Amino acid sequence: FTGLTGRLSKTPAGILCMSGYLPRPADILLNDATKEIPISMHHGEADSMVQPEMAQMSLEHLQDMGHKNVVLRMYPNLEHGANNEEIEAVQAWL
């Protein structure tokens, strides 16, 4: 989520988050440009390293801040890793 902190010299074309979460919501700086950045979040429902609730809370926080283009896809039985379904979804998004 570094692309939403204002630390980059250019606005990214998109942000991909796999098995992750928003660690410091206070660092997010949303403006007209960053509110439109596509964010694709992917998370396993069986992830024991990063609880699925953390991904859901990150999604809700971004939406509450006014981000307009963020999606979270959850994958049943997927632990902290990737599977073919997730990889195909990421490829399609890219």
Give the overall shape, derived from the CA principal axes: globular
Total count of strands: 3
> What is the CA-CA span between the terminal residues?
17 Å
Work out the helicity level.
10-25%
Draw up the topology in text.
Elements: E1 15-18, E2 39-44, H1 52-64, E3 70-75, H2 84-93
Description:
With 94 residues, this protein is of the alpha/beta class. Helices cover 24% and strands 17% of the residues. It has helices at residues 52-64, 84-93, and strands at 15-18, 39-44, 70-75. Strands 1-2-3 form a 3-stranded parallel β-sheet, with helices on both faces.
Any descriptors?
94 residues, single chain, 17% strand
Brief overview:
The chain is α/β, with parallel strands linked by helices and 94 residues long.
